[in-house]
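task queued by scheduler; priority normal; single chain, no ligands, no partner chains; default sampling; output format set to structure tokens
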Amino acid sequence: MSKILATLIAGLFAANVFAQAAAPAAPATPATPAAAKPAAKAGAKMEKKAEKKTAKKTEKKAEAKK
């Protein structure tokens, strides 16, 4: 009886390993970075954003003083 039980347990482990190995996961594709922008363009965009923010702040201050 113990041999049968041992065989059944070993069979369960083997089935578990086979089930995991039978369907390998698709390899993850590496994320491709977006087209690199030249440093000058990126810097100019950042400056424009900063200018817009400061302009909005000064407009709000001017409206608050009215």
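post-processing summary
- The CA atoms of residues 34 and 60 lie 36 Å apart.
- The mean pLDDT is 77.
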